[in-house]
Amino acid sequence: MRAQPKASHFIDGRYVESKAGQSFKSIYPATGETIATLNSADEETINAAVESAVAGQKIWAATSPVERGRVLRKAADLLRERNRELSEIETLDTGKPLQETLVADAASGAECLEYYGGLAATLTGEHIDLGGSFALTKREPLGVCVGIGAWNYPIQIACWKAAPALVCGNAMVFKPSEVTPLNALKLAEVLIEAGLPAGVFNVVQGFGDVGAQLVSHPDVAKVSLTGSVPTGAKVAALAGEHLKKTTLELGGKSPLIIFEDADIENAVSAAINANFYSTGQICSNGTRVFVHTAIKDAFLARLSERTGNAVLGDPMNETTSVGPLVSKPQLDKVLSYMSLGQEEGARLVCGGGAASVPNFPDGLFVQPTVFADVEDTMRIACEEIFGPVMCVLDFDDEADVVSRANATSFGLAAGVFTKDIQRAYRVTDQLQAGTCWINTYNLTPVEMPFGGYKKSGIGRENGHAGIEYYSQVKSIYVEMDGVESAF
Ligand code: NAD
After folding, report:
1. Whole-number Cα distances in Å, 114 to 65, 81, 87, 136
2. Are 195 and 180 in contact (CB under 8 A)?
3. Do the beta carbons of residue 435 and residue 448 sit within 8 Å?
4. How many whole angstroms separate alpha carbon 379 and alpha carbon 385?
5. Annotated binding site for NAD(+)
6. Distance CA 225, CA 102 (A)
7. How far are the Cα atoms of 194, 238, 279, 437 from residue 337, in angstroms, in the given order?
């Protein structure tokens, strides 16, 4: 299987190959086959991408908001028309099953473009009465924004960054993860076809050093990163050195609290979604599942039974519900945590190791894994694993579980299951997390802002809040009287 793009980068409206630079491969995680080989951008390519974005941004910022919105909505339509092709590429690049990519990746990217396309013409400033004189505010673009993506939701992340950036009149240079480089290029093609001027959305490929060069480029105004906390710290430090505006969407170890009055079947569904969807490779996953002792046995019995229904197999087969992990390093990391949980004394309820899948001897498959009797201090309960490893912890008391849920440096998301609406609100009010779900988990509609408390991030993506992070407010004071001065 091949999904080789025409060239590695997309700059100024066309595919571009870099002359030098380190080459790297996109590997299909189900088979280990190389599906594409690309070049990491050299300095000349990075500079060309930024230069073209500077020129494109001037044209785009002068385009009326109604027209900008039309381009984004057209791009959304094109993504939908090409959903199957894009989903197949996403499955090859990430290993996520087609059952998921057909509904969750390009589809959510299209919703984001449509949403911000719809907002375009509504972005207005204020008139501020100063008693005769007055002030105006207007929302202006930042200039050239850099987007840097993680590998778990490649086209969704590209759209979540590009759509709010472009609607505000910015240009974007996007660097996908070196693990999943393909669909950002397809998004660039689609945006050009939808009428975006050349240079307004460019894609350059490469590793962290390319990301860092983009962040420190003097013509870049802002960086938005989706990635791990350690990378976030590096990007924030570099951006701070150059005083660049920054949005960081980072990792988590989120709590999912299931009270004794919860609907067990729904709570089990949520725990499955919160740990095994995308083979557990989701930043907001509820990997610390706190279950009230009164329902613990019933919950674990049903969870174990239903986890047994997971279909591991050919990601291209739409009946497959769990695909391989994205890469060999990720496989090694997840397997090491599966062993660590057993060494730390957690009780293995199901899974616990690699999975062998017929016809896919080289696939990076692991078993969906549940540990019970997990203690707060165990490393499996403290560190982000980013694989299908669920930790179930016991609790009896509301105040105690809230304080344990908050006892982490992460703060991306949290969930509460209870039929008592007052308790649900009381608990979510106290949870230190950017997104809280009541009686569901991991739904991230584009209308709802998304982002982290504490080390899980800075800033928000999606919703009206997203606009704040890709625009700046200019105040204009209009004097209607004379000017007084001291001398
Ligand atoms: P990562 O931090 O290794 O890499 C993320 C991106 O940063 C890649 O494109 C990488 O090339 C780039 N990068 C690495 N070093 C850099 C540097 N010094 N300067 C600039 N760029 C650099 O993350 P990953 O392994 O690709 O993704 C998994 C992580 O992403 C997990 O921690 C997960 O929780 C997080 N994530 C967060 C969200 C969110 O919205 N909060 C969404 C998806 C994934």
Report:
1. 14, 14, 18, 29
2. no
3. yes
4. 10
5. 149-151, 175-178, 251, 283, 384
6. 25
7. 45, 31, 15, 27
The one-character DSSP state at 131 is S
Q: For residue 252, give the ligand 1 atom closest to its CA.
A: 34
Cα 183 to middle of ligand 1, angstroms: 17
The pTM of the full predicted model, rounded to 2 decimals, is 0.98
What's the length of the chain? Answer: 487
d(CA 37, CA 22): 11
Output the pLDDT for position 174: 99
User: Both ends of the chain: CA-CA distance in Å?
Assistant: 79
Tokens of 198: 């050349």
**With a 6 A CB cut-off, is 12 part of the ligand 1 pocket?**
no
Residue 94 Cβ inside 6 Å of ligand 1? The answer reads no
Q: What is the structure's pLDDT at 318? A: 98
CA distance 338 to 59: 53
Q: Return all residues near 422 (Cβ < 8 A) that are at least 6 apart.
A: none
pLDDT, residue 115, reads 98
Q: Return d(Cα 33, Cα 27) in angstroms, integer.
A: 6
Q: Report how far residue 278's alpha carbon sits from residue 100's, in angstroms, rounded to the nearest whole number.
A: 8
What type of residue sits at position 243?
A: L
CA nearest neighbour of 205 among 45, 6, 1: 45
Q: Kindly give the residue spans of alpha helices, DSSP state H, lying in 208-252.
A: 208-216, 229-241
Q: Which residues are catalytic?
A: 161, 249, 283, 461
Query: Which of 167, 164, 165, 159 has the alpha carbon at shortest distance from 145?
Result: 165
Provide the token pair at 118.
Answer: 């719809």
- Are 137 and 128 in contact, with CB atoms under 8 Å apart? yes
* pLDDT reported for residue 21: 65
Read off the tokens for 126.
Answer: 């204020």
Residue with tokens 């240009």: 171
Kindly give the distance from the C-alpha atom of residue 6 to the centroid of ligand 1, in angstroms, as a whole number: 26
- Residue 66 makes CB contacts below 8 A (sequence gap 6+) with 120, 121
pLDDT along the chain (487 residues), means of 10: 94 92 93 97 97 98 98 98 98 98 98 98 96 97 98 98 98 98 98 98 98 98 98 98 97 98 98 98 98 98 98 98 98 98 98 97 98 98 98 98 98 98 98 98 98 98 98 98 96
CA neighbor of 220 nearest in space, from 412, 7, 373, 53: 53
Residue with tokens 């060999």: 328
Asked whether the beta carbons of 163 and 19 are under 8 A apart, the reply is: no
Neighbours of 477 (CB within 10 A): 10
Name the token pair of 224: 């938005």
Rounded to the nearest angstrom, the distance between the alpha carbon of 228 and the centre of ligand 1 is: 5
Look up tokens 């009465």; give the residue.
129
